[in-house]
Specification:
The structure holds two protein chains of two kinds. By secondary structure, chain A is α+β, with helices and mostly antiparallel strands. Chain A is 41% helix and 20% strand. Chain A is elongated and about 95 Å long. Chain B has an eleven-stranded mixed sheet, with helices on both faces. The two termini of chain B are 18 Å apart. The relative contact order of chain B is 0.14. Classes of the chains: A alpha+beta, B alpha/beta. Chains A and B meet through loops of A and helix 9 and helix 10 of B.
């Protein structure tokens, strides 16, 4: 029997506001010592009252609009009741039936096909405190509460169950993260916890309209974890269904080290949050003009930017897509073009050259070192200087890669490295000829093969010369001289 | 001059004329407290050291020409308003040792005027009750008859004023908790319009109904205190940014042309004959003073107010009281290894029966499957009651009713019968449901026990209320009678 996988994602994103959602404490708690960004309000002291952070409301409306949601005229906050030591008031101020945005969508692309994924709603709430579980030297377990995070604005984006594979889920998350970063409303960093994802996943037998039991998967702390957890879960559910067993509706936790999901004990009372309107906050009537103004101030979003890159820089759509999937990358790209270097290239060729470098060597190193491009030590100006050297053939491609690695790791300037390491290209035929002769002498088998018509051997010999000159020899000259000498010999 | 019977405006005049110092005034109050506290138990804490310091400072300021009417005047604060550095218990075991790190906005304002805080008033635990018998510490006794209740939940504040332990007090009113004890103790008690006084720092019972107000010896004092505490507060999103008038300006004793309605539903079955008699006499007096009274006004939704109140208030309370988990402050049960057990036991031992009863009521009313039938229905009733009042105030400037259907009842008489206890607030609850302002002023006695008259007006109609109350007060002597204790 065949099954279809059905996935819906719920994403929580912390908003990049200066202060917390309902008090004036700083929301930037990342490096703060525990319990220093707190006040009676976010501690949930008796007698305190919340006041709404307008910036958070604006950010939420921005997001709702960017996700093509309807922003209603009337919204309100509600109390979501459940007891837990990380919840200071015993209830969370959230939104139930009148969120800031509902019924929107975003577009993903898998296998070159565009697909619209529905957004059920976008709502605003407050984050909870952080519990830190410890074990004392004599083996007693205890928990500490850090209230710094309590009350940080948290936006929840509830996706419709429109995703059909873990890959689509991954695309959806990347797209959503990209949009939040383009809007500048969240750092949207999953590893740091400013972007969290819970997944609902079920399978539906072919020819059936009803999916089997819905499973909620939690505790995924990276994009990769989401992908792996969903893969695992889709397989697990198929296996159980094929064994003829009944799948149970439950919450499961992803165990990263083991690569499996395990059933979590359902939280007591978790099923009845007893929502009711927050009496401490009057309902919000959203001024149409204000919402319109927020809409008109939305920054350029990934798709628009991609289309512009294609039109303005003549980039292939593939390149434009890659560059604009991250705002930081696209910003870096445009900063490079702004330098106008290398001058002698047409703007389209320059764009393509920068694009190749960004998606090639640069991305490889960023990934390998887990660095964000806006934190990289290589400035756009320096990168362009390097490209200029390559373009003028002052250095070889191989040298350029070595140099770039050095710049990337140490932050040194291109000129300094050239001066220090003598990386400029060798076009002195005397020097190159000496190395060519040495290569022929030391690789008799390759020479024989070449003469027997094996063109591959020429490449091998070129490689030997390049290695001997640490990549500095002008490859064109090496090729020419090698062919010449081989013909002679 | 009987120093224990001074009003704010009298004491202020004497302070300004240097015939009396704030220290003398304060010492006299503290002495009076020592005399009467063993009999009335109005205060959960007497802050004598702090009070004398504040009094000294006030005297210095007065010597330098400070003329604010509240400077140097002793006040008692109900123990559900946060006072920085002074325990704020809500008369609950749960908060017995809770010392707030901040002042409620009203306390901040009084301190700003250099008031003298002499103590914290006893109350029904978390303001849930109508007799102050539900205090976890001790019951407060009515100075007019020590075997009777003073009303509640602001019983301690009302008694402290009635027994001369303070010149005025602050109370809070969720369903009658200022007005009913004011009526029972023959003092003046005002519940302002919802949103008129900041709730920031008032430990919440039912957030959409709670409101802080003054308990005073007369109407002029009431206006002075309202002047000091009313006004917008950016920390309370439900406070209303209307300008605050000078409430003393409306004390003109002129009722000509004022239209007063008497809603018949407030003269309920089971109302004591002497109460009805006293209130009808008081209304006749208002008519004599020039008001146009219409006796047969009907507010047909009134009978549903009590039911709606006992859904809405406990629902909000069930969430408001969820924070008392023993982790952060207050009582904490620690004799267990289990987090959930600790939470359960903390609440089992920290809360009294009435509080638990209301938490259970509210939790039930909000539960899945019951929400529509209870909470939502109650909110619809609320809208109807509000609308009914709106319509009435198109015709009338004020409505007049008894404050309570009975005179003070015996201690122990209703404490085991919640429904009878709840009915004690039947005339005051609808006012909170509608968010209106209302006052209770002394309007007579039945067998030597106080009877209060309630005057209600439209939202932000405090001036109309004070005007009528003042005119009545000036024409009568009830407010001058003092309990002989």
């Amino acid at each position: 029997m065949n099954f279809e996988t059905i996935i819906g994602l719920e994403v929580h994103a912390q908003l990049l506001t200066k202060s917390k959602m309902f008090c004036r404490c700083s929301a930037d708690y990342a490096s703060a010592p525990p319990n220093t960004h707190v006040c009676p309000v976010c501690l949930g002291m008796p007698g305190v009252l919340p006041t709404i952070n307008q910036q958070a409301v604006e950010y939420t409306i921005m997001t709702a609009l960017a996700l093509s949601c309807t922003v209603p005229d009337y919204t309100k906050f509600d109390r979501k009741n459940y007891p837990y030591p990380d919840l200071m008031k015993g209830y969370q101020i959230s939104q139930s039936d009148a969120p800031f945005g509902h019924r929107g969508w975003l577009t993903i692309e898998t296998n070159g096909e565009k697909k619209r994924i529905g957004i059920a709603n976008v709502h605003l709430e407050e984050d909870v405190a952080k519990l830190i579980h410890r074990i004392s030297p004599d083996g007693e377990s205890y928990s500490l509460v850090d209230v710094n995070r309590s009350g940080v604005p948290l936006m929840e984006i509830v996706g419709e169950p429109d995703l059909r594979s873990p890959e689509e889920a991954r695309q959806y998350l990347m797209k959503l993260r990209s949009i939040l970063r383009y809007l500048g409303v969240s750092t949207a960093n999953m590893e740091e916890g400013s972007f969290r994802c819970d997944a609902n996943i079920s399978i539906r037998p072919e020819n059936s309209s009803a999916p089997l039991a819905k499973v909620e998967v939690k505790n995924m702390n990276s994009f990769k974890a989401v992908y792996r957890a969903l893969e695992y879960e889709a397989k697990r559910q198929r296996r159980i269904a094929l064994e003829g067993k009944k799948l149970s509706q439950e919450t499961r936790g992803w165990v990263e080290e083991k690569g499996i999901t395990v059933a979590q004990r359902s939280k007591e009372y978790a099923h009845d949050y007893r929502y009711f309107p927050e009496p401490d906050l009057p309902p919000l009537v959203l001024n149409r003009e204000w919402v319109k103004e927020i809409g008109s101030k939305l920054p350029e979003l990934p798709e628009a930017r991609r289309d512009r890159f294609v039109a303005e820089y003549n980039l292939p759509p593939y390149d434009a897509n890659l560059l604009t999937s991250s705002k930081a990358m696209a910003d870096y790209f445009e900063a490079c073009l702004k330098t106008g270097v290398p001058h002698s290239l047409s703007s389209a060729k320059r764009a393509k050259m920068v694009s190749n470098w960004l998606s090639g060597e640069f991305s490889r190193l960023l990934n390998a070192t887990n660095t964000e491009i806006d934190n990289s030590k290589v400035s756009p100006e320096q990168l362009c200087l390097l490209l200029d050297l390559v373009h003028k053939a002052s250095i070889s491609g191989t040298s350029a890669k070595l140099m770039f690695k050095e710049m990337f790791n140490s932050g040194k300037l291109a000129d300094d490295i050239i001066a220090q390491q003598g990386l400029s290209q060798i076009s002195d035929t005397g020097v190159i000829e000496r190395e060519v002769m040495a290569a022929i002498r030391n690789n008799a088998q390759a020479v024989t093969d070449y003469k027997a018509g094996k063109r591959q051997s020429l490449k091998f010999l070129v490689g030997q010369v390049m290695r001997a000159t640490r990549g500095r020899a002008n490859p064109r000259l090496v090729n020419e001289l090698l062919e010449e000498k081989l013909e002679e010999g | 001059m009987i120093i224990n019977q001074l009003t704010i405006h009298e004491a202020h005049r004497l302070l300004g004329a240097r015939q009396l110092s704030s220290v003398e005034l304060t010492k006299a109050r503290l002495e009076r407290s020592r005399q009467v506290e063993p009999r009335v138990h109005a205060l959960v804490a007497i802050t004598d050291e702090l009070a004398l310091k504040q009094a000294q400072k006030a005297d210095e300021l007065i010597a330098r020409g400070n003329t604010h009417p509240l400077t140097g005047i002793p006040v008692v604060i109900k123990d559900n308003m946060c006072t920085k550095g002074i325990p704020t218990t809500c008369s609950s075991r749960m908060l017995e040792n809770f010392v707030p790190p901040y002042d409620a906005t009203v306390v901040e304002r009084l301190n700003g005027y250099n008031a003298v805080i002499i103590g914290k008033g006893n109350m029904d635990e978390f303001a849930m009750g109508s007799s102050t018998e539900h205090s976890a510490f001790f019951a407060t006794h009515n100075p007019w008859d020590l075997s009777r209740v003073p009303g509640g939940s602001s019983g301690g504040s009302a008694v402290a004023v009635a027994a001369g332990e303070t010149i005025y007090a602050l109370g809070s009113d969720t369903g009658g908790s200022i007005r009913q004890p004011a009526g029972f103790c023959s003092v003046t008690g005002l519940k302002p319009t919802y949103g008129r006084v900041s709730r920031y720092g008032l430990v919440a019972f039912a957030s959409s109904l709670d409101q802080i107000g003054p308990l005073t010896k007369d109407v002029a004092d009431c206006a002075l205190v309202l002047n000091a505490i009313a006004g917008y507060d950016s920390r309370d999103s439900t406070s209303v940014p209307y300008p605050t008038p000078d409430y003393t300006q409306c004390l003109t004793a002129d009722l000509n042309g004022l239209r007063i309605g008497i809603p018949k539903e407030y003269f309920v079955e089971g109302m004591q004959v002497e109460v009805e008699k006293a209130i009808r006499a008081a209304i006749n007096k208002l008519e004599e003073l020039g008001a146009r009274v219409e006796w047969e006004v009907s507010l047909p939704h009134t009978p549903y107010a009590l039911a709606a109140y006992y859904i809405i208030a406990p629902s909000e309370a069930s969430a408001n009281l969820a924070r008392y988990d023993g982790v952060k402050y207050g009582f904490s049960y620690t004799d267990t290894d289990s987090m959930w057990k600790a939470l359960e036991k903390t609440r089992q031992f920290g809360f009294g029966d009435e509080v638990k009863r209301r938490i259970m009521l509210g939790t039930y009313a909000l539960s899945a499957g019951y929400y529509d039938a209870y909470y939502l229905k109650a909110q619809k009733v609320r809208t109807l009651i509000r609308r009914e009042f709106d319509q009435a105030f198109e015709k009338f400037d004020a409505l007049v009713t008894p404050t309570s259907p009975t005179v003070p009842f015996k201690i122990g008489e209703k404490v085991d019968d919640p429904l009878q206890m709840y009915l004690s607030d039947v005339c005051t609850l609808p006012i909170n449901i509608a968010g209106l302002p209302a006052i209770s002023i002394p309007a007579g006695f039945g067998d030597g026990l106080p009877i209060g008259m309630q005057i209600i007006s439209k939202p932000f109609g405090e001036e109309t209320i004070l005007k009528i109350a003042y005119a009545y007060e000036q024409a009568t002597e009830w407010h001058k009678r003092r309990a002989s204790i």
